[in-house]
Design a protein that fits this description.
Blueprint lengths: L2 H29 L6 H5 L2 H27 L4 H48 L2 H16 L1
Helix pairs in contact: 1-3, 1-4, 3-4
Amino acid sequence: MDKVTQAVENLKKEWSQAVTQLEECIAAFESCGKMGKGTEEANSLPRLNGSVQDALQLLNSLQCKLDPLAEQLPTFEEVQSGQATLRSWKEQYQKLRMKLRNANLQVNSNIKKAAEEERKLLLGGGEESTIRRRTLYRQRLG
């Protein structure tokens, strides 16, 4: 196997790993606010968003690396295969961006719902309301 073919194979492996990592990040991002702790979970969103953006940048970088390498492959069939791989990566990248967009919308909805439930609990009166206010007060102090 020549150096170009080996480099393309290494890029394919790196792409698979990066896609898996990105899908895990998007799933974690999307689940924020579902546990009923919307305002608390909202604090982790910047970190998760940073991870997602890093993974997207890595995928974009891998596409840029594959583009010139695909043209340098030794046989015509391998060149065509490399170009087909690049096209499929671009499609997959766009699908992942759409998945992230939908996850963002879901997170916003989850957090709004959780914040409204928390508000009702805090303002509702009764023992649960008192306990929740005390808990929030202690969190702010500590």
